[in-house]
Amino acid sequence: GADVNATEESGFTPLHLSSKNGHKAVALLLLERGADLNVTNEQGFTPLHLSSMQGHRDVSLLLLDRGADLNVTTEKGFTPLHLSSQEGHQDVSLLFVERGADLNVTTEQGFTPLHLSSFNGHRDVSLLLLDRGADLNVTNEQGFTPLHLSSMQGHRDVSLLLLD
């Protein structure tokens, strides 16, 4: 049969692609046939990074239940929680928080998940992170807090949340 862990030119395996596109049944089939859960592509993305970025909670849950590393980082230091927060996927972010994801982990440039949700105006994700204990005064390598970023981008609702 076909090589379940074969990679294309960017390093994507079939599990990367089924996870990115939210195909839980296919992801399960691939896992049952020996797909590597924590395989990375050229940028260090695992299947869990891709499912989280696209907001596929069911696939993310499957991967976690099968033993995917929740705090794995890409080459630039992004965890799955960074990506779900950046894209505003509250349900996926909640799943990761409930499973014990590090709320204050930073990327290479010093961004926390709260920095990314604030920059992109995702109030619900920002509220979730704050409620669960994210540090709202942490600074990135440029000295920006989440409030700096929400203010710079004109996100009044997120700025108000961070000020309260």
UniProtKB/TrEMBL annotation:
**Signal peptide position in this chain?**
none
Question: Keyword annotations for this protein?
Answer: ANK repeat, Repeat
Concerning InterPro entries, the annotation shows: Ank_repeat_dom-contain_49, Ankyrin_rpt, Ankyrin_rpt-contain_sf
Q: Which domain of life is it from?
A: Eukaryota
Q: What is this protein called?
A: Uncharacterized protein
Q: What is the lineage of its organism?
A: Eukaryota, Metazoa, Ecdysozoa, Arthropoda, Crustacea
